[in-house]
Amino acid sequence: MAESKPAKTPQVASAGKTRAEQGPSPAVMPNYARQDIVFERGEGSWLIATDGGRYLDFGSGVAVNALGHAHPALIAALTEQAHKVWHTSNLYRVGGQERLAERLVEATFADRVFFCNSGAEACEGAIKTARRYQFVSGHPERTEIITFQGSFHGRTLATLAAAGNTKYLEGFAPDMPGFVNLPTGDRAAVEAAIGPNTAAIMIEPVQGEGGVRSIPAEDLRWLREICDQHGLLLVLDEVQTGMGRTGKLFAHEWAGITPDVMAVAKGIGGGFPLGAVLATEAAAKGMTAGTHGSTFGGNPLAMAVANAVLDIMLAPGFMEDVQAKASRLRQELARVKDEFPDLVLDIRGMGLLTGVRLKPPVGDVGKACMAEKLLTVGAGENVLRLLPPLNVTDAELSEATARLSKALRNVAKASA
After folding, report:
1. Which candidate, 5, 111, 302, 357, has a CA 20 to 30 Å from the CA of 166?
2. Looking at the domain assignment, is residue 101 inside a domain?
3. Does 6 map to a domain?
4. Domain residue limits at 101
5. What is the pLDDT of residue 6?
């Protein structure tokens, strides 16, 4: 039963201080361990704070701002659409949605696309698509989905259960059933887990949150074969790895395979909230009218921006340029590793989804990078993620590694 609340004391802004200068607001739920900094604008690979400080952004909103900040083509597309119509709902056809879906179908394995708003929602949609496929195929008992330890599929109850991370599941019991979480790379465990109730296998080509751990191409090819052998769907979570992040439009292309269903988000909107479920015609056969929906999914604003993103990413030479930049970053990081062999244990990842596995706590190194005005993102296995915009310049890559070197040098001094 709710208790009566005491009368609220009006919050008066401190004289002469902006909202940002007053410190974090208690009105915001404290779900995040936020840095005490407010960014007011961005320019390409840079973010500018309210105090004027310029930060080199190698976090990109956790791989979301794939084309950096304030890209003129994205601004133009959003502004033009904003003067027309923002939202109509999916009760009606959406022109931009049809155009984007057709372009994604042409550029990928998929025949059908469903639009939503986030990576978690895309993963939920992929899970529903897989289960619905088995249901309409005459196998309603096939509801279990095999997933892998170290994965991250989102923060909804279903996606938390899919990943099986006890840290994120704590306090949200009961865990949603229907998922079998296995050690990554254990083929014998996968074969043993497949049974009459198995519907699909779901995996990230690179486990971003789990430590930037790449799944070997031969393992992805084997999973494709085992799914075909047992009548299962292969579901790929390419929320973080997709949209050019690894140097191809989608990471599974490196392994030479195609999934049946794929979850996409982050970079597809270039910073505007957008997710999508891509599927073959066969895999999507159960997703008929009324089976799934999203109020804001595929709204005209998101579609305008995403089509502008795709214009850039599908342009000749764009992916080759990302690959060249990724190679340059690896070379620069190799020099950092040589300089700090006692601090840097490993360089890992694919393309511009790069991880630096560290000996000192990743939090300490992240703070040291922040002091050098370099923004990074932590990950599992004590890994520091570097996720620059795909259109980062060579000079910015060199500047980032120089700042990382300074940060590591300061960490070494502090621990000496």
Report:
1. 357
2. yes
3. no
4. 85-313
5. 63
